[in-house]
Design goal:
The complex is a heterodimer. Chain A contains seven helices and no strands. In chain A, helix 3 crosses helix 7 and helix 4 packs antiparallel against helix 5. By secondary structure, chain B is α+β, with helices and mostly antiparallel strands. In chain B, the strands form two sheets. In chain B, strands 1-2-5-4-3-12 form a six-stranded antiparallel barrel. A six-stranded antiparallel β-barrel of chain B has the order 6-7-8-11-10-9. The radius of gyration of chain B is 46 Å and the shape is rod-shaped. The chains are: A mainly alpha, B alpha+beta. At the A-B interface, helix 1, helix 2, helix 4 and helix 5 of A face helix 1, helix 2 and helix 3 of B.
Chain lengths: 184, 285
């Protein structure tokens, strides 16, 4: 299947402005929820990566351009809420995810629920890899067992779990700009 | 390969990559240099009220779940305590039984010390067959335990009766208040002799009478009555009861004393069968 760049409307068209506003709200709320609500609930062992889910969602249902821009925004937000003096490469990571899944969904795979879960499975695996890299840089004496059991695995599965309601939320967000997308 | 090349050559992708790299590195470097990023600062400022609100919601959810978790823990603790309490109740019950048995054995130890020539076999009342004319107690010991007919039965407070029938693991006994019972007795204070027997009228009241007492005998209400050892059933010196009333038989001109048994015959459960004792005959006395 041939790769063609995504068509785009003018930057200041009303549809684009509306899209930016709506998607910004989605990314912002995902970041806020991720860094506040889920962190405050004591019985949840880890925080799901809602930003990643939103970025993949926008990439899949609005294309790789939206995915990339949303990814950069999500990365900045993630660093603002959870970063510090460390360089975590979140903007780069989310941008690559957004672009990659946007292209993959458009060229190779469908946009149904099964495909969605597959994207999240892969995206969460990427995120887990980044978590391990972060841990390796953050600690000298790294305990991989602890990292896997306390961070990576809970984060992975919670992200998968949260992707189910997020599937419907993302589709509802994107729907005004893509009338053809029907709820499956 | 062509696909990847085309992807990499995409101007949008390259610009995005550059911006992402820039935004990944610059804020971190600025932060490391002690200068916060304005964008980061603005984002944090704008998001603070929202994050505060969601944090409170999260804490509320945690508190709510903690409430139920605490409730579950309390329920488990309550069940554990109930089980523990049940265990303690059983222990107390066992201790009470042991206490009763201990008291019983201690009292009999006293009797044993008092009557060194007695040999005892303890028994439990396992049945009580009562008719209009007679009450028979079934005891838990029989021939296998060395029990024989006519062996006397006592409690720590006094004489109960004697064995009338024996099986391998059981025996039957009649009380001193029954009509079938006749016990040689004497008044401890004065040594006046007589026979303690049961009657139909008195057995319902749980008392018996002492007959064949000479009219000029020294006998008073409250006198203690003991077995005299006359006959082949009862040894001498076992407490039967005390005199509650003295009357004179107009026909025979003999005295009759009503005796209240010392042993609580209405509620006996554990008793001792005297399996061996030394018979002191009238001649020896």
């Amino acid at each position: 299947m041939e790769f063609k760049e995504q068509k785009h409307h003018g930057l200041f068209s009303s549809q684009t402005v509306g899209r930016i506003l709506l998607f910004s709200v989605l990314i912002f709320l995902s970041g806020v929820l991720q860094s506040s609500l889920f962190s405050a609930i004591v019985f949840i062992p880890a925080t799901p990566d809602l930003l990643l889910i939103s970025v993949i969602g926008l990439a899949v249902y609005d294309g790789e351009r939206s995915g990339a821009v949303a990814g950069i925004s999500a990365g900045v937000l993630a660093e603002a809420f959870g970063g510090g003096a460390h360089i975590l490469f979140f903007p780069l990571f989310y941008m690559l995810c957004g672009y990659f899944f946007g292209v993959v969904s458009r060229v190779f795979l469908n946009r149904n629920f099964i495909s969605w879960m597959l994207y999240i499975l892969i995206g969460a695996a990427f995120r887990s890899s980044l978590s391990i890299i972060h841990s390796m840089f953050a600690e000298n004496d790294i305990n991989l067992y602890l990292i896997f059991t306390e961070i990576v695995i809970p984060e992975y599965f919670l992200t998968l779990l949260c992707s189910i309601p997020m599937y419907f939320i993302v589709r509802m967000t994107v729907r005004p700009f893509h009338k053809k997308i029907e709820m499956e | 390969m062509g696909f990847i090349l085309k992807l990499i050559k995409s101007r949008f992708f390259l610009i995005s990559l550059a911006v992402a790299l820039l935004l990944s590195i610059v804020p971190g470097v600025l932060c490391a240099m002690g200068q916060g990023s304005y964008v980061r600062s603005a984002l944090v400022t704008v998001s603070t009220p929202f994050r505060w609100a969601f944090t409170k919601i999260g804490e509320g959810i945690s508190g709510f779940s903690l409430y139920f978790r605490t409730l579950d823990e309390l329920r488990e603790e309550n069940n554990a305590l109930r089980d523990e309490l049940e265990g303690y109740k059983n222990l107390v019950y066992d201790a009470e039984l042991i206490g009763e048995e201990n008291e019983f054995l201690s009292s009999f130890l006293g009797i044993k010390e008092e009557h060194v020539d007695f040999l005892f076999e303890d028994a439990t009342v396992v049945g009580r067959e009562s008719t209009n004319y007679r009450t028979v107690y079934t005891l838990s010991k029989g021939t296998l335990h060395g029990i024989k007919v006519n062996m006397p039965i006592i409690t720590d407070t006094g004489l109960v009766g004697h064995i009338t029938e024996v099986g391998a693991t059981w025996s039957k006994a009649v009380l001193i208040t029954e009509t079938a019972s006749a016990v040689g007795a004497y008044i401890e204070r004065s040594g006046v002799l007589g026979i303690v027997e049961g009657t139909y009228e008195l057995r319902t009241e749980g008392i018996c009478r002492m007959v064949y007492i000479e009219p000029d005998s020294d006998i008073r209400v409250g006198d203690k009555v003991l077995t005299s050892g006359i006959g082949e059933v009862y040894p001498r010196g076992i407490v039967i009861g005390k005199v509650t009333e003295i009357t004179m038989d107009e026909n025979s001109r003999m005295l009759t004393a009503l005796i209240e048994p010392s042993a609580d015959l209405e509620s006996i459960s554990k008793l001792m069968i005297i399996t061996e004792y030394q018979i002191i005959s009238e001649r020896e006395e």
